[in-house]
Design goal:
Largest sheet: none
Oligomer: single chain
């Protein structure tokens, strides 16, 4: 059927690749599949499309450079420390802090907070975001974004050679569980990403 639908040339050029991708996918454990799927939004942001294996396919130098540039991590230990301390990288931590400021009693406006705290333009933008989105995002806030980012960084760590797939999956498991327990649907997950 695939042969008839796609045509002889396409099938011969891409059929083998598609079968190989399916074999890779089928070789993953259930958590390995969740690891790949739940990190996909972050992968998509940087135009990497590889959900079939835990190693996203960066070359080692590019993976190390990405982690150094974006996380200031130069080793497995650095990356694990950054992941373990969300205040170092977390949008959720910032979101929760700004949400607390916005919801104090009496409830200030963004403008009042900006004047009182001499806020930067970046902080004011974040305050407006939190002010507008807190009802939509509900109690989970930006858990999807932060945990997806952690999963993505672990996959880049595999490409860098800092983690084996098993090590990364062990670190990833609590983040996967948190995401699976927080959202009822892909639409809900996507809204929070």
């Amino acid at each position: 059927n695939l042969y008839r639908v796609l045509g002889k040339t396409y099938y011969h050029e891409n059929g083998h690749k598609m079968l190989q991708m399916l074999k890779e996918w089928n070789s993953l454990s259930e958590y390995g599949r969740w690891f790949c799927i739940l990190s996909e939004p972050a992968m998509e942001e940087i135009k990497i499309n590889n959900i079939m294996s835990l190693n996203p396919g960066f070359n080692i130098a590019d993976a190390e450079n990405y982690l150094k540039t974006n996380m200031n991590a130069t080793s497995k230990e650095d990356l694990l420390e950054k992941i373990a301390n969300p205040e170092n990288h977390s949008f959720l931590t910032t979101y929760d802090k700004l949400k607390a400021v916005l919801n104090q009693n009496p409830k200030p406006t963004v403008e009042q907070i900006a004047i009182k705290d001499f806020s930067s333009g970046r902080t004011i933008t974040k305050l407006y975001f939190v002010s507008e989105m807190q009802n939509t995002l509900g109690k989970y806030g930006l858990i999807a974004y932060d945990n997806c980012s952690v999963l993505f960084l672990l996959r880049v760590g595999i490409s860098a050679g800092w983690f084996t797939e098993e090590e990364a999956l062990d670190v990833a498991t609590p983040y996967i569980d948190k995401l699976l327990n927080a959202y009822d649907s892909w639409e809900d997950y996507a809204t929070h990403f």
